[in-house]
């Protein structure tokens, strides 16, 4: 589920970069949070694809 959310956020982030919506800053924040969550799961030794 976490990978799905991260994928959706990456797509929205790229869409925000291409179309330069004002919500782009919020998408960047969500993308950073998703990447941090994946890294924490990897550091703990959990499977991030579950």
The succession of helices and strands, N to C, reads HH
- Work out the radius of gyration: 12 Å
In whole angstroms, the N-to-C terminal distance is 7 Å
**Could you tell me the number of beta strands?**
0
Structural class: mainly alpha
Q: How would you characterize the largest beta sheet?
A: none
Tally the helices.
2
Give the oligomer, counting copies of the same chain as homo and different chains as hetero: single chain
List low-pLDDT spans: none
Please indicate the percent range of residues in DSSP E strands (runs of 2 or more): under 5%
Gross morphology: elongated
Mean pLDDT: 75
The share of residues in helices is: over 70%
How many domains? 1
Map the helices and strands.
Blueprint: H1 2-19, H2 24-44
Structure description:
With 50 residues, the protein is mostly helical. The chain has one domain (2-44). It is 78% helix and 0% strand. It is built from two helices and no strands. The chain has helices at residues 2-19, 24-44. Helix 1 runs antiparallel to helix 2 (24-44). The longest helix is centred in the C-terminal third of the chain and has 21 residues, at 24-44. The radius of gyration is 12 Å and the shape is elongated. It starts with a helix and ends in a 6-residue tail after the last helix.
In brief, what are we looking at here?
The chain has 50 residues and is mostly helical. 78% of the residues lie in helices and 0% in strands.
């Amino acid at each position: 589920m976490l990978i799905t959310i991260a994928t959706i956020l990456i797509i929205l982030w790229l869409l925000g970069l291409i179309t330069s919506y004002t919500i782009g800053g919020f998408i960047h924040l969500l993308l950073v949070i998703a990447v941090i969550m994946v890294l924490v799961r990897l550091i703990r030794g959990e499977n991030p694809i579950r």
